[in-house]
Design a protein that fits this description.
3-stranded antiparallel sheet, globular
């Protein structure tokens, strides 16, 4: 900063500053060129692409089932939601439907993933603003959810559990009982989190009246999810365009009206409570028949020892994709979007006669949220920028692709 001092006046010249990618709040691969006047921001130029891998082109060179793990690497905090969107798209392309019991289990893990994402978003946001305790509490709960991941598919992060035609394995015997205990305990964890943050005057002052969004602004920038609902626009794909078995479940879509960072924080807290409510409804339903699931398209996972030949034959059955026959000879295109934890995650695919997607285009909600970072931070301070990025809940695996 250059300060020119005379006897009568002081003038502060405008200058530029690099924010990230080394900054912890910049998510590792985001570079923001800040144009400042003192500590006030009047323009931000975001630089992305440092994580670019060409995911969409890689998918076009793979079969449908080989493409599935790529979606675990997009939003790596909400893995099952991404692979679920891909599975829905493939099933619609080939006119394949699954049993309602399988849909209940899918929705069960989708809501667990929503809690997983929101807990990461809130606690790391608090950590960026200087609060360490919520981060430690939140990650203890995340580990419990990852234990449920591990029990059904063997993986804790990149699950590859939901795939076209169903999912990988049946639920273990005591899974629903253990999950019900987790739901009961997690309600108290949310209350503890709110006691530390929501009622904290420092937290309130750091977020209130910061990064305010209007309804028209969010619609112009194609916002979705929490960012759009914080402006008072009641758009939730689970309710507006139901998929799986959401139309049979009882849940509420929360909205706010002011559209600032504090509202976006509160919405994520409320959505975690609503996810627990949905999971409890599904547990009651699944408890009647989860031992009698009719999984025709794949074999269940058992604890008994399997030879390598049995495992190879099992993978060959999944790779066959005979469940999607007959295939139409002409091109088929389809767009499917779901209410991912960060917003509307969409996938447009064009299929031909082969087993690989002809074209694949991904709509990542974080990309549309990041493009509005300049307008959201104008005339804010540098310290407010960290708070705004945290409530946008950006993960660069889906932005750079």
């Amino acid at each position: 900063m250059v300060v020119k001092i005379t006897n009568k006046w002081t003038k502060i010249k405008r200058f530029t500053l690099n924010f990230g990618p080394q900054h912890p709040a910049a998510h590792g691969v985001l570079r923001l060129v800040l144009h400042l006047k003192g500590e006030s921001i009047f323009y931000i130029d975001p630089h992305i692409g440092l994580l670019h891998r060409g995911t969409e082109k890689l998918i076009e060179q793979k079969t449908y089932l080989q493409s599935l793990p790529y979606f675990d690497r997009l939003d790596y905090v909400s893995t099952m939601c991404q692979e679920h969107t891909f599975s829905l798209n493939v099933e619609h392309l080939f006119h394949h439907s699954i049993h309602s019991k399988q849909s209940y289990i899918r929705v069960l893990f989708l809501e667990l993933t929503r809690i997983l994402n929101h807990m990461m978003a809130i606690t790391t946001h608090a950590l960026d603003l200087g609060a360490l305790t919520p981060f430690l509490w939140g990650f203890e709960e995340r580990e419990k959810i990852m234990d449920f991941y591990e029990r059904v598919c063997g993986a804790r992060l990149h699950a590859s559990y939901i795939y076209p035609g169903g999912f990988m394995c049946e639920l273990p015997d005591t899974f629903l009982f253990d999950l019900l205990i987790f739901c009961y305990q997690f309600k108290h964890r949310i209350e503890e989190l709110e006691h530390v943050l929501t009622n904290n005057s420092i937290w309130w002052l750091r977020l209130k009246h910061i990064g305010i969004l209007s309804k028209q602004f969010s619609l112009n920038y194609s916002h979705s999810g929490v960012l759009l609902r914080s402006t008072g626009y009641p758009f939730d794909l689970r309710d507006s365009y139901p998929y799986e078995v959401y139309e049979t479940l009882n849940f509420s879509t929360y909205i706010s009206s002011f559209g600032d960072c504090f509202d976006r924080y509160l919405l994520r807290i409320w959505e975690m409570r609503e996810s627990i409510y949905l999971i409890e409804q599904i547990i009651v339903t699944l408890n009647k028949w989860h031992h009698h699931l009719d999984l025709v398209t794949h074999r269940s996972c058992t604890q008994e020892k399997k030879s390598m030949e049995v495992i190879i034959n099992s993978f060959k059955k999944k790779e066959d994709l005979t469940m999607f026959q007959p295939m139409k000879p002409q091109f088929n295109s389809n767009y499917i979007s779901t209410e991912a934890p960060k917003g509307e995650f969409g996938l447009f695919m064009i299929s031909n006669q082969g087993f690989s997607p002809y074209r694949c285009y991904i709509r990542a909600p974080g990309f549309f949220h990041l493009q509005s970072i300049d307008s959201m931070t104008t005339y804010h301070f540098i310290s407010d920028l960290v708070a705004i990025i945290g409530t946008q809940d950006i993960v660069f695996g889906e932005i750079d692709r």
